[in-house]
Amino acid sequence: STALLQEKENKSTICFDDVAGLEEAKVEVKEIVDFLKDPTIYTHLGAKIPRGIMLIGPPGTGKTLLVKAVAGQAQVPFFSISGSEFVEMFVGVGASRVRDLFKQAKAKAPCIIFIDEIDAVGRLRSKNAFYTGANDERESTLNQLLTEMDGFSANTGIIVLAATNRADMLDPALLRPGRFDRHIYLELPNLTERKAIFKVHLQSIRAEDSLDVDFLSGQTPGFSGADIANICNEAALIAARNKKEKVEKADFINAVDRVIAGLEKKSKIISEKE
Ligand code: ATP
To answer: Distance from the CA of 147 to the center of ligand 1, in angstroms?
Structure first.
């Protein structure tokens, strides 16, 4: 039914201050915010803003967060879908969802379309892959996406943002001029950036005043923003369990250990699969 295919229109209250680190990525997307706020400034001058932007980076580095911040800053709605949703669909459903998505977005422009995990549909079409129904569906979804990307003009007021952890796996057709031709890389945070991320997430937590954020940032090399958000919440849960008045350093240290244990378990499962 069409009701099922209706995409959820989202409003975002997230702003650039909620995104810590990622300074270069923020500079890059600021132009998009300006365009969405008032497309006429650009179209009046004949300036063509990129229609498709690919956010590339490891899991948990803030790709989704950045898209929400763009929507929040520009105060435009965003429509989001995840590439992985298409994988289990019947043939033709994925393509019609893509068509519906762009149709709805056109009616609500200026706005953002966000395609998370685009690699799930946009994987390189392998020449010698044996034929499967799932593959067929994926291809028809991808083809529809390419058609839609080619089918709207730069001044429609729609920006399509997509996210992936695996840009090397993507079908080059997606990255061609006029499609996702602008690429923004998000890296794991360095020490200073981890500190900034801790500060954002500590705002919503009642931590002891003397909490040593430098120490915590130093204890978490290789952690993503999502891992750090997770640590802050785990620490608060541990403190609550122990009926503490405030979240203390020891709770954070416990939380770091828990998150590390969780990450190790995850990577063990992945390596066993391979
Ligand atoms: P995935 O590839 O797994 O979808 P992602 O790159 O889209 O991950 P997000 O979903 O944006 O990552 O991040 C998850 C959560 O981690 C965010 O909602 C936020 O709480 C926190 N986070 C990640 N990066 C940052 C950051 N740079 N600043 C502040 N918080 C962050």
So the answer is: 30
Closest by alpha carbon to 221, among 250, 252, 189? 189
Q: Are 86 and 5 in contact (CB under 8 A)?
A: no
Contact 201, 24 (CB under 8 A): no
Which ligand 1 atom sits closest to the C-alpha of 227?
A: 16
Q: Which of 19, 24, 61 to mutate to test the pocket of ligand 1 (most atoms within 8 A of CB)?
A: 61
- Cα(42) to centroid(ligand 1), Å: 30
Distance CA 229, CA 188 (A): 14
Question: Is there a binding annotation on residue 133?
Answer: no
pTM for this structure? 0.89
Separation of CA 230 and ligand 1 centre (Å):
10
Cβ pair 260, 247 in contact under 8 A? no
Question: Is the minimum distance from the CB of 157 to ligand 1 under 6 angstroms?
Answer: no
Q: Is the ipTM of this complex over 0.90?
A: yes
Sign of the C-alpha dihedral computed for residues 234, 235, 236 and 237 taken in this order: positive
> pLDDT per residue over 258-272, tens digit each?
988 887 777 766 666
- Per-residue pLDDT tens for 178-217? 899 999 999 999 999 999 999 999 999 999 999 999 999 9
At 1, is the pLDDT very low, low, confident or very high (cuts 50, 70, 90)? very low
Residue for token digits 């001044």? Answer: 155
**Segment 160-180 mean pLDDT:** 91
Using DSSP bridges, classify how beta strands 9-10 and 52-56 pair: parallel, antiparallel or unpaired. Answer: unpaired
The span from the CA of 138 to the CA of 133, in Å, is 9
